Amino acid sequence: MSAPSYNPDNTDIDRIHSAVKREKEDVAAGQGPAPMWIMFIGMIVAIVAGGQLGPMAGGFSFEASNPFALSKAIDTRPGGGGEGAALDPFQLAMKKGSSAYGVCMGCHQAAGTGVPGTFPPLAGSDWVSGGTERIIRVILHGLTGELKINGSPFSNPAGMPAQGALSNKDIAAVVTFIRNSWGNEGTMVTEEMVSAIRKKEAARTTQWTMAELEPFAKEDAPGEIPAGPGATAAPAAAEAPAAAK
Amino acid sequence: MQNPSPNVEPDLQADTLRRAAIDRSVKGPVLFLLTNGAFWLMASTLLGLLAAIKSFAPDFLGHASFLTYGRLQPAHINALVYGWGFQAALGVMLWLIARRSGQELRTGKSLMMVAAFFWNITVTIGIGCILFGGNTSLEWLEMPAFTWPILLFCFLVFAWPMVSMFARSHRPEGFMISSWYIFGACLWFPWLFSTANICLHCLPSLGVIGSGINAWYVHGVILLFFVPVGVGAAYYFIPKITGQPIASAQLAKTGFWLLAILGGWTGMQRFMGGPLPAWMVAVGAMTGVLLLIPVLVVGLNHHLTTLGKHNLVAVSPTLRFVFVGSIFYPIAGIILALISSFWTGFTFQFTHAWYGYQIIAVYGFFSMVVFGAIYYIVPRLSGCEWLSVRLIRNHFWFSVYGIGIVVVTSIVAGMQQGGDLTAPERWDQSWISVVLNARPYLIARAVAWAMITWSNVWFLIHLMLMVAGLGRRSSAPTLLERHDDHSDPHLTHGAKA
Amino acid sequence: MTDFRKLTLGIAATFGLPWLLLIVVPAFKYQHLKPIAYDKEADGMDGYYPQSNANVLGLQVYLREGCVQCHTQMIRPTQFSADGWHKGWGEDQAERPADATRANTMRDYLAEDVAPLGVARVGPDLANAGYRLAAMDRSMIHAMLYAPHSVAIWSNMPSYAHLYKVRKAQGPKSELALPLSGKFAPAKGYEVVPTPEAEQLVDYLLSLKKAAPLPAAALGTLATAAAAK
After folding, report:
1. CA quadruple B367, B372, B375, B378: dihedral positive or negative?
2. Where are the alpha helices (DSSP H) in C106-153?
């Protein structure tokens, strides 16, 4: 069949075998020597690899799993030469609070600026540097309805969700943190203060409204503040100058 | 039969007919394996997408027991490895060994079909058990204990004929490195699989040593099964499509033997600083770094073989996939060295970087090369050409971007997580920062798996159409770019190349 | 020699050696590991190391749920990581422990069928969770498994609600009922109680204590090994 008519079915031997026909021949591999530089690179890799067999090999014993088990542990924790010196409670609260603040950052932003009209700012806000009774309640049970903070209105359909799931210690830390960041200055809040307020408001299941919180606006939660930088900020009764608008 | 043109020698014709006969003889088992594999690929990428979403949104789709991350993630990996990886590998291995040894598969075809059928049933039941309460929590061996003897037997049903074909092979061209790798894979995997399963399921409790054996098994399957099949296939297809011989036989042999020597020692460094005997961890770390040498050697060999023919990467789908796979290979080797060495390994230990390594090895390198192989093999078995260039391009780009994103985000997340875990100043801080820092990477991972799912849907449809014989009826291959006949790489002009 | 024979022998030798040295021999040696007795004078305490205290049934639940995907159980030495100093990860649950938690050794896992060392640290390490959880109310631990979000809103831990039953409250609040509030609480008149699997899992978590001091006898072998290096 030197000139077959076009026959697009399974009996067209030319077409079926065309894929195989057009394949290239197998050829033997090149027999020349390999380049020398690769040996040098290989040697360098081998030296680096051999370094793994140093002290970590534990003398090739079956029993030795941690060759450093007998050495004294190096205390790399900051804040004391490993002798158990505790951080000042205020500094501890600031440190913990800054990491716990990650939860709040989503709405109130990393610099406490909030989003105009929707999420209130924390920087320069009298809700934060004012009465701690109010701010602790806001965090425990959330906030809803129309708000006016620093003279600007804020509203948002769901309001602020309750953060009561955080531990008392974390809430105290984060309140201390926001009260002392971004230009704010305030006394620190302790775990006992938060726990007392939580007990007092244990029956509450709904978010607060601005009006309900008015009585607490200038009240500080009762409780002892450890001596030190946490106790020296101005008390709630004094209006922070930035809030006077 | 057409009249032999004066340029076509009778030898070439006989050779063509022989190759066509070999193709016909393996058609059934190979197409069955590849199609089933493609279905499992689809399933595993969907599971991967779901697991990735659940890792940052655990309430997505509710709280049913089979939708928890702890069950979805092993189901995803087992589906990828045993459902897709092994079936695709066996399909490609069978075709390669048959071609390379120059022999038709004469007997055992029905037995192979039955074995493939049972493989699929067993993996289905196994994944079902993982999702519904039979998870053993042994990495890559999460399927319940009753599955392993069946899988081993099915594997041997395929491996035995392949080993026999290799033993009887007759090639005038001399040694063929691809067959060595395929043969090695046929021996290594049953050895690894039976050892790990007997130690972990049959011997009395091995405690920590058992965890070490588990880690050794995972590295062994990657380095002594998926890598040899991928490298062997690359060694076949690169010379086949470029028409140039493998650059250096010496490099090829060196690469093979180095892999053989080093591959069995590594794995236990996964638990560095931990309760395993220290020397086993140290040796694992050393060989993990030393494995850079065979990776370098093979990479160089492939690079020298493609010299001067890089334009073909744009034209041939097979070469494009194999080429990209060959780029992922050294990256996978570097990642292994990073997670193995003591200097950097502690940062990456127990982080998302481990997942990144598994994916780049099994998907980035192995699967890409196997996709290239499938684009070459299937037209020869189904008698028709791929239907759509656009679908091939789609498959290619979404896969490359998807895998790239998964790997890069996993490694970077690993560095971030490792930094968080090892930083001394975080000693008393709550876990919240570790979780929040990893979140964006997990979201990116989910997006990447969505892209890969998209590419695999079209690949599966395309492959099913081909297997059903509904491809393009043509004598010209489906190429990715227009090419006029004079420079068509797939035409030999009748002369012996 | 033909290619086939050369390859088969080569592969058998090159793979057989690590197979023997890394798998077979250590597996044998492990079978002969025994607990080491404490010496009253040298260690100041009686008994054996380790105390076999891992709850076996609970371990099965732990493995079945895939907890290893996110939680590890392995304290690394302080030379390479901050595990030992991490607050709450050891026996000493004080605000600022004076000593680091020791790195885990092989015998720490002797009581467990499978040593669930873990895949990744998406969540905290649990090697010594028993000490940490002992301070919590048992029903709080259940609440954490049932609804992790109620304890930590930023957590990505899945809810293991399938290990719990929601049943109609019969009379006064059962002492098994979980303390849940807000959106996590069941409908009015219902309570959430743990199934036996959940109880086993919590027993297992409470039994996770791998910080028992190393007896002097064990340190002897380590010292020899360290000196030999």
Report:
1. negative
2. 129-134, 138-146, 148-151
Q: Identify residue B264 by its one-letter amino acid code.
A: G
Type and span of the H or E element at A148? strand A147-149
Residues of C in contact with B264 (CB under 8 A): 14-15, 17-19, 22
Separation CA A27–CA B172 (nearest Å): 10
Distance CA A86, CA A77 (A): 11
pLDDT value of residue B490? 54
Report CA torsion sign: B472, B475, B477, B481.
negative
Alpha-carbon gap, residue B385 to B387, rounded angstroms: 6
- Is cis: bond before C50, omega within 30 of 0? yes
Whole-angstrom distance, CA of residue B299 vs CA of residue B303: 6
Please give the sequence-ordered ranges of beta strands (E in DSSP) within C20-176, or none if there are none: 36-37, 48-49, 164-168
Q: What's the rounded mean pLDDT across residues A162-184? A: 83
| Residue A138 reports pLDDT greater than 70 | yes
Radius of gyration of chain B (CA): 23
Q: What is the pTM of this model?
A: 0.83
pLDDT < 70 regions, chain B: 1-10, 171-174, 482-497
Q: Which two tokens stand for residue B217?
A: 């098994």
* Amino acid at position B17, single letter: L
B20-48: buried (b, 16+ CB within 10 Å) or exposed (e) per residue? bebbebbbbbbbbbbbbbbbbbbbbbbbb
Long-range contacts at B327-331 (CB < 8 A, ≥ 24 apart) = B328/B360, B328/B364, B328/B365, B328/B368, B328/B403, B329/B227, B329/B230, B329/B231, B329/B295, B329/B298, B329/B299, B329/B365, B330/B295, B330/B296, B330/B299, B331/B360, B331/B364, B331/B407
* B390-440 confidence digits (pLDDT tens): 999 999 999 999 999 999 999 999 999 998 888 888 887 888 888 988 999
Distance CA(C119)–CA(B343), nearest Å, equals 20
Say what the pLDDT of residue B496 is.
Answer: 35
Please indicate whether, in this complex, the C-beta atoms of C30 and B207 are within 8 angstroms of each other.
yes
Q: What are phi and psi of B247, to 5 degrees?
A: -60, -45
**Closest approach of chain A CAs to the CA of B376, in angstroms?**
9
Report residues of chain C scoring pLDDT below 50: 224-229
Rounded to the nearest angstrom, the minimum Cα separation between B386 and chain A is 12
Residues of C in contact with A75 (CB under 8 A): 78, 85, 100
Say what the pLDDT of residue B236 is.
Answer: 94
For residues A168 and B91, what is the distance between their CA atoms, to the nearest angstrom?
61
Q: What φ, ψ does residue B218 adopt, rounded to 5°?
A: -60, -45
In the structure encoding, which two tokens stand for residue A121, read together? 């700012």
